[in-house]
């Protein structure tokens, strides 16, 4: 959370995989700012840091990048209209890299604008120290005066903080730099009093913990939170020293005197978020992180409020905790956890915000007993979709990472979570010709339903479970384990089902797809061999069939209601279709790229289900395209402002089977996005 000190009700949030957002106080919703990001630049959805210009409330900077996407591209983006558009995007990849989804993503902020000079910008990096721009982010130069490049946990600089009371010669002279390492490795807090010309380690700084966040109070005290790790969770066991993330501290540093005071609340925990009342330097609020203590009916982080500069604290959660779910039924079963940042509203300091691994929470009166915390996430869809099926005449079923998934009867309202709950749920299947039969899989469990997901019964699995397929009649269930061995059962509704190993698929990443009409047929694309694999005996065995390009999208689609009509997205190889059950394929003319393909309800006047792809036609821009004539012609139905980073590794694009023209797409972290045809009076 970033709270503007210059404009009331102006708040921003950054996420690890879902971009950045601005709060719209009038509507009580978050406005996404990075939905323009293209498929090639999908890594920019990982937001490392945000910075506001203290002299111009409309100016926003975003530092973004993810090493495992977009070749690790790292950029600094500048907006002059509150993030509605970005007028400058500076590629700094050759100088330093960031990781919006890496260890230490809860630290910060690494990006800061000089309080005296809007052209001066500092950026702390993970792998190459500290950088400065003197042209409002158009270019950056490394400051060799900070003797830090990277750290053992690859988090590098954990925060940059500029002292607005130190302005001289048109720039802040005093700069504090937190470094994500233990003191046994090297100094982890540096100070400059000459505008970055030199940096020296701060004397007597705590060495047994890593600095997380810091804030300056108006009386000249610097409050710093510490933890025994970069966070937000324990680090890899391979790290030396290890980072268990189970202990920490809060310290107060008197900038003028250079003296330290331990002001840690009497609570063994890691600490992360810290904020000070701008009107009362004695009033300080901190939060724990990665702590699992009693929180209402759940277990999570605690928040501590001091009114005497940290001499004593009130445990706000222990004093009384009430949760307002704001209509999200399933959040009541969860807690505020990984509470990486906590912020007073600078214009109403009874109000405070806190971030969590599952969203953002807000209290309008932190002094109340109990304080009520509202789940304030409308518009902030930061989830990873894993599966989606629109059931003809029924609901929309989704599965997602971490939280299982939902049964939607109204896509514009919060939906109930699948119960019993699973965590990440990659497996979802609906029997095409008997749509009441549904299965989902995750966390090494399988559940089946005979009423389109209203109720569920566990199915004993053969092994660890990943992906699923159901035959057209719902009588056969295939499940693929983590090593891509696939198992088959025709009595999975029994208490002790029989499982047999499917032959002919191998461990090649093939994902079985049922024929929508013939219960004996299944299809699977082998991306390594460039070949379709077909089963004609109900999934018991597969044999090689039609040839295809290598390394296309793994998720294939069979046209609803049509036997043997199979479509395969081949990425740079375009789009292929078979009308003879995979025996042979032909390329769909004009489609030059296809990362995902799916089907929706047949539109009025058409005779074939609507085809949707994420791809390009005739070499044009990538986007979501629609065809109502079986691929003979296409129309792009999104625009450059709504690209969402593409579907994410070819996960899915799928139409609605009940409403003409509605289409759904997965993302790498923006949840399921959907488009609907514009209707005119």
CATH fold description of the domain at 1-202: Methylamine Dehydrogenase, Chain H
State the secondary-structure class: mainly beta
What is the architecture of the domain at 1-202 at the second tier of CATH?
A: 7 Propeller
Tell me, what is the CATH class of the domain at 1-202?
Mainly Beta
Residue share in β-strands: 35-45%
Query: Could you tell me the mean pLDDT?
Result: 96
- The end-to-end distance, rounded to whole angstroms, is 41 Å
Binned, the helix content reads: under 10%
Number of strands: 59
CATH superfamily of the domain at 1-202: YVTN repeat-like/Quinoprotein amine dehydrogenase
Q: What would you note in describing this structure?
A:
- There is one protein chain.
- Helix content is 1%, strand content 39%.
- By secondary structure, the protein is mainly beta.
- 56% of the residues are buried.
- The strands form 16 sheets. It has a five-stranded mixed beta sheet with strand order 29-33-32-31-30. Strands 1-2-3-4 form a four-stranded antiparallel beta sheet, with no helix packed on it. A four-stranded antiparallel beta sheet has the order 5-6-7-8, with no helix packed on it.
- The protein is elongated, with a radius of gyration of 27 Å.
- The longest helix is centred in the middle third of the chain and has 4 residues, at 316-319.
- Among the domains are: 1-202, Methylamine Dehydrogenase, Chain H, CATH 2.130.10.10; 228-380, YVTN repeat-like/Quinoprotein amine dehydrogenase (Methylamine Dehydrogenase, Chain H); 383-501, YVTN repeat-like/Quinoprotein amine dehydrogenase (Methylamine Dehydrogenase, Chain H, 7 Propeller), CATH 2.130.10.10.
